[in-house]
Amino acid sequence: MNAFLRAAWLDITESLRARWFMFYSMVFGGIVVLLFVFGLTESRILGFTGLSRLLVTYIQLCVAILPIFVLITTVRSLAGDRDAGIFEYMLSLPVGLAAWYWGKMIGRFTVVFLPVFLAMAGAAAYSEYREIGVPWDLFAVYTALLVSLAWSFLGFGMLISTLARSPDVAQTGAFLLWLLLLMFLDLVLLGVMVREQMPLEVVVAIAVANPLQSFRTAAILLFDPQMVVLGPAAYVILDTLGREGYLALALAWPLTVGTLSAALGYRLFRRGDLP
Amino acid sequence: MMTFTPPPAFEPRIVFENVSKTFRRNRVLDGISLEILKGERIALVGSNGAGKTTLIRCLLGEYTYDGTVSVGGLDPRANRSVVLARVGFVPQIPPPLKMPVGELVSFAASVCHSDPKEMVRVIEELGLDFGRIRRLPFVKLSGGMKQKTLIGIALGRPSDILIMDEPAANLDPEARHIFFHQLAERKDDSVMVITSHRLDEVAALVNRVVEMDMGRVVLDDRVADSVDMTSRMSCDLKLVRADEAFARTIGEWGFEGAGTRWSGMVNGPDRLRFMCMLSRYTGLIAGLEMVEGKEVAPCAPEI
Prior knowledge:
By secondary structure, chain A is mostly helical. Chain A has helices at 3-17, 19-37, 50-84, 86-90, 97-129, 136-163, 167-183, 189-195, 200-209, 211-221, 227-230, 232-271.
């Protein structure tokens, strides 16, 4: 097994033993269980019923909690590892820095994505068993969107972990970033900016750049592409790009921005002090 | 059967040329120039904040710096994998890894292209039952057990350079003796850098002392290389009167006796530490005889 896979496997096994992972898995598993318990598969809203309704609700909850979970767990454990001297020892072994950094990122992606996906897959399996019917096209789109969202915030987390010299600073930075992206969702500050007649290009550019916004809009445009739910900026972008175009943007942009952030993090990591 | 191709050996020569390191405005290393050749065993001593750990991290390619560091003719930062494949490192503070000991050994052996059995052999020689601890989380081991595991990993793989930060600090007497044996086997073919706050801890293990203060080398001196690192000294002590505190302390060194008469064995490399300990009880000592021998007996307590 090469150093990259070793580093990835090391991060996976260390994460599986960590308390945060247990809590993280329980939260997403618990959400699905609660949605079943509260009968969301049987209710009908905006024409959606069965598992589609549950998936739509689940994905809305993911917008709120997945990014902050990914950010905080990533920066806490990576900056914490450095602070505790784990980097000092592990990087005294002949492991290439690229193998270590990217191996850690892939390992971390596996552990943050799998519980979210498995909770959704578990719901699909249960629906098949109960013959409720599974909307596989929606399932596939949501899986892809979750990959994209998790990867982008993981990229931010890797960058913040590299920049911050202590777990506290890293955690504060991660929280502020999440808050900033949350505030610039279409119906929050962007709405205010539209009302205050800020230049449309600026508002649209902010909306396009915010991966949280892309994810949210892509998740709901499948069932309700109306301005009152989407928000004005997303409505304009959707009008310009069309449904497929927006979906492609919502999948590709977070992946791109996450990769760029992680790459910048790697560049700084390689050039700076390691422990 | 798996085969392990050890990384290519190189001339274990370390050169620091005008190396400086600044954290924000704090200059931690200030123009360090040092040359360390094969067969040299260096005690890197100095108080907290003297720059020892920073110097070691520069040597391991973990820090950026101004100046030049060369290990076997290679820049450790630009040639990490090649250089570190031949460098064994024991940190002062063991990393709080949650992984089982077996997994740590397996990971280290894999990235070092070494045989994990060799690491396990050294770990067991140091007195650990590997079969019992291999499934335990590394972080749950006692300080001494962690130290033995890390020493086993460092010494159980082919290396030309050994860098050890207070390596024997948590070892029990028997493990110290075996550790000294392990170092003695390598003393002529490799370079050793052993850091410590106190020279008496490591003086007998080394043949050169480098003292650092405020990021500078303030002393670079040779040490008479006459002590056999594997030797033991038989010691008889006579006191002017019995003393409870002394009895407790000498008991920790594995000495036997009572009242005013005590006898036991002291590791050759530990004799300076032993004398330092005795110096605290100078008023009590009526007589002392130390004779070099090779008998097997307890030797020195944990620090």
